[in-house]
Amino acid sequence: MATWLNDYRAYKEALSQEFESGDIKINKVLQYQELLYRIDVLETCQMLCKTAPITMDMKSLVMHYQLVDAYIQNLSKERRIGLPADDKLKASRETSAAALESTVADCRKRFSSFRAENEQLYKRSISTLLNTVLPVWLQLRNTYTPITK
What we know:
By secondary structure, this protein is mainly alpha-helical. It has helices spanning 2-19, 26-50, 58-75, 87-112, 121-144.
């Protein structure tokens, strides 16, 4: 997560400098908008990992998990904006979307019967969940707006 975030921030800074010239192609504008979105998502996921309760109190864990669950559910459905797609790209988008939905469903299933065996388990489990979902989400995002340097 941190590596992607650093790479995206660096690329965002490079694009910002290009924008000062005023002669920007639309694909760079789309990439910049996508970078802002991805940075926000990755920062939010980092925050969710950092704020995961270190406790065995199920009420606290459930409240935090509901935030995580709602967020990843949104990620699997939102921002389906991108360049026009031919049949091959449409198929790739459908495959990536199905993979993300399957990954999210699997994570939800694993957490449906979660029980904290120690105070650290939930925090580690949330980090693992997000680190499982994010690569699949990024794969889907790249079918809409690929980030290339």
